[in-house]
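Incident review: delayed structure delivery

Summary: a single-chain prediction request sat in the queue longer than the usual turnaround. Root cause was a stuck worker, restarted by the on-call engineer. No data loss occurred. The affected request and its eventual output are reproduced below so the record is complete for anyone auditing the incident later.

Affected input:
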Amino acid sequence: MFEKFLAGKTAVVTGSNSGIGLGVAHQLARAGADIVLNSFTDRDEDHALAQSMADQHGVKARYIKADMSKGDECRALIETAGACDILVNNAGIQFVAPIPDFPTEKWDAIIAINMSSAFHTTAAALPLMRKAGWGRIVNVASAHGLTASPFKSAYVTAKHGVVGLTKVTALETAQEKITCNAICPGYVLTPLVEAQIPDTMKEYDMTRDEVIKKVMLERQPSKEFATVEEIGDTAAFLCSPAAAQITGTTISVDGGWTAL
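Output delivered after worker restart:
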């Protein structure tokens, strides 16, 4: 799986200084791609993370700051990268509240970061892919791009929108060597999720195992988290020669959630 089949390609991964985005970036780097990491901060550790990735995988890697809530910065990220053979739209945030109580500013931020950013980066990346004669767009959607949960109106709306954008992008590039697909993870064990476990144990007076299986993974039939490496491997597969005719579809990595 990990021969350097992406050598000579440049991958831009949004929201990638931690969690799923970082996991995807590592797996693409293992396959030989040069990497552009991104988030909205501009700290020494962000740039050190890129250098560490370059050293670990023997590729070029750099970090570019861009706020995914702002369309002009989304487009500038691609322009600054200079090349974008692979675009992974991963940046996302979450907020939970009933619709009547959902703060307008939270709705606007989630729609902008989780959905509109993918439109802006795609619009900027497609001309570069067409010039290169090859491209792969991987949108990190969610099980919530295919189904819904209460109190997550903005997130569910945005992720459904990402799935729709994926299909339109695929149709507009169907006769080119460019594909666009969406990965739909269920619950993934990221540092952010890991950090929530101790508080949830206290709140419900449960063991770690009980919290994971009865609370966090209640809707995930496998009762196991997906890993960031598994999401990364799925992204790498979608960029591989084997996936050349896979476009405009979703791949669920959700332990059976959307089979219910």
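Verification: Residues 104-132 form the longest helix (29 residues).
Action items: add queue-age alerting; document worker restart procedure.
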